[in-house]
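The records we work with from here on pair a chain with its fold. These numbers are not coordinates but entries in a learned vocabulary of local backbone shapes. To see the layout at work, look at the sequence and tokens printed below.

. . .
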Amino acid sequence: MRIDIPEAKQLVHEMTTPMRWGDMDAMGHMNNTVYFRYMETARIDWFVSLGYEPDPRGQGVVVVNAFCNFIRQFEYPANILVRTYASNPGKSSFDTWVTMSHAEEPDQPCATGGATIVWVDFPAQKSAPLPERLRRIVGN
């Protein structure tokens, strides 16, 4: 099943990263699991840039679902542009969307994906209201 990325979204982060030799599988292209790692790396980089360092003793984000649509393969060597978008802020959650493309062809996605993010109070093991600052950033 293919999940389409909505038009109504905010670009919140861009990151370019080199594909690593070890990211390839036996078929010579980037292994499917690695796409999720790049989405995770971009998401963490975005939150750290906002000052939300991962802290299991405080509050932060968890992914409650994630998906990836594989469109074109990446082959080594490649510089991968990961663009992260956000939308649909709720009381304690919002959606993120990702495009991954060759840095030299930024408008030709090789993969699209996304995740639903929930703001959590880790010690209490419960969702918590999104910080107002984060709500303003992800709202459209």
